[in-house]
Design a protein that fits this description.
By secondary structure, this protein is α+β, with helices and mostly antiparallel strands. The protein is built from 7 helices and 4 strands, in the order αααβββααβαα.
Amino acid sequence: MTRYLSETISQMRNYCTSPLLHHGLQTSATLWQHPKASRLYRERIQNDAKYYIWDDPYLWRLCNDQVIRRCILDTEINSVLQFCHAAPGGGHYGSTRTAKKVLDCRFYCPTIFRDTYQFIFSCEKCQKARVAISRRHEMPQQPILFCEVFDV
């Protein structure tokens, strides 16, 4: 049992999973040997682990919207963000829209919105475009009422 857990843990270390589950997977082999670990800690790991499915070679997660998404490897995050943001269909949209595109492609990473924001903040093309047009330079979004002074 411990050998199987250690093999699974070594395979899952590269995935971007929730920090508690990642820490729990690293220590789960020792949890079986140390029954003095708190009951609450074990329950939290079990509750987190029930949303993950290991189907070799990928790790999948059942998300809140009942969609099964593939967990992204730490090394794949930038290439997925590059594809969803700067590919011909990407369009260099903002961080929220790019993150939603990643989720629409059925990928999962718990820090996807933070990673997307950092990725777009480092995109040179987006930063050059945003310097020229800031919020202050935009047209007002409320209608302007025009009236003629001597309109009878």
